[in-house]
Amino acid sequence: MSADLTDTMYNSRSWPYVSHFEGTNRIIEHVEKYVCPTITSAGLTGQPAFTFQPDDRPRAVFVIGEDEYQTEKTLPAFANSELEPLGVRCTFVVADPKTPHDFKGIEALHDADLMVVSVRRRAPAAEQMSMIRKYLESGKPVMGIRTACHAYDTRGKAPEGHAEWPSFDPDVLGGHYTGHHANELKPKVTMAKGAESHPIMAGVRTPFTGQGSLYKTGPLAASARALLLGEIASHPVEPVAWVNLVGSSRVFYTSLDHPGDFDNAAFCRMLRNAVFWAMNRQPSGGPSSISTSRSRFKITGADFDGNAFSHGNRVFSW
């Protein structure tokens, strides 16, 4: 069954009062849970997934390839509970651990409204890197998650035919990563001066404790604005979340992203706010949508934890 080529008869004026397209998503979720797995046409054609008109929901493409923080699990779970109920279509391009520099399905960036990068020291194939650069040149927004500050820096160990981007951090994120403090030193996170008025900080309560090591990220580029600061004893304060502007691209980055951070409502609120700020969009639906239980998300080109998928843009129940 092709999920993106499926349509349904659904009355959006009746319960649960979501859009026609979200209603179709929920029918597909039911089919996946009780009848059969699904794929999308992208897995067969290599082209962006089909969308019905006028489905104007924004699409966020998560590019994931790291071995430290389990973002192949935490980010889909976050998107499932915090983004998809609010009208964001989420696609996940996950590097297969067996071929860690290969990002199958990166073509999804062709029609993406947001690219979320959670990558650590990978060198995509030259053609794939060209797609990443083309996306950025288009002026569309970017979000960097923790290891994104050294996403494409393999320290000269890129396989033949693959491309690095060692300066991705200063070029795009606006940071200055030089390593991190000891893992056992958890930072106290506070609001940067004047950041209270920024839309990404709406509803974010500080202080709180970060669950991962504190990254050394300063000084920031002149174009960047710090939102959150991290502090450990006897060391300089470091920015742990900020925004930047590169050309016409809105950029958000946070060095927070330990699995334990996703148990923190303030962190999740910030991340959700950042998605909509970056896209310059308002969430669809209402507060009741956030509590809706859902289990559907897309993974591309990965194979982990015994789940039965390996290629294409497979949709399945987690």
CATH architectural type:
3-Layer(aba) Sandwich
Name of the level-1 CATH class? Alpha Beta
The helix content, as a percent range, equals 10-25%
Question: What is CATH's topology name?
Answer: Rossmann fold
Mean pLDDT: 85
> In order across it, which strands form the biggest sheet?
2-1-3-4-9-8-7-5-6
The oligomerization state is single chain
Compressed to H and E, one letter per element, the order equals HHEHEEHEHEEEEEHHEE
Low-confidence stretches: 286-318
The coarse silhouette is: globular
CATH superfamily placement: Class I glutamine amidotransferase (GATase) domain
What is the count of DSSP helices, taking H or I runs of 4+ residues?
7
Descriptive report:
The chain is an alpha/beta fold. It has one domain (57-317): Class I glutamine amidotransferase (GATase) domain (Rossmann fold), CATH 3.40.50. It is 22% helix and 19% strand. The protein is built from 7 helices and 11 strands. It has a 9-stranded mixed sheet. Helix 3 (71-83) links the parallel strand 1 (59-65) and strand 2. The radius of gyration is 19 Å and the shape is globular. The chain starts with 19 loop residues before the first helix and ends with a strand. The model is unreliable at 286-318 (pLDDT under 50).
In short:
With 318 residues, this protein is an alpha/beta fold. The chain has seven helices and eleven strands.
Topology, element by element:
Blueprint: H1 20-34, H2 42-45, E1 59-65, H3 71-83, E2 89-94, E3 114-119, H4 126-137, E4 142-145, H5 168-173, E5 188-191, E6 208-209, E7 225-231, E8 238-246, E9 249-254, H6 265-279, H7 287-290, E10 296-300, E11 313-317
